Amino acid sequence: MLKETKHLITWQDWSDDEIHSLLDFAVYVKNNRVYFSEHMSGRTLVMLFQKTSTRTRVSFEAGMTEMGGHAIYLDWHTTNFQLSDIDLEATYLSRNASLIMARLRKHEDLLLLKKGSLVPVINGCCNIYHPCQAFADMLTIRLDKGKIEGTTLCYIGVHNNVTNSLISITSALGVHLVLVTPIQNEYAVIKPLMEKAKAKGLLTQETNIQNAVNNCEYVYTDTWVDMEFFNDPNFQKEKQKRTEIMMPYQLNSELLKNSKAKVMHDMPIHVGYEITREVIESERSIIFNQAENRLDAQKAIMLRLVGMS
Ligand code: CP
Question: What's the mean pLDDT in 60-66?
Answer without folding.
Answer: 98
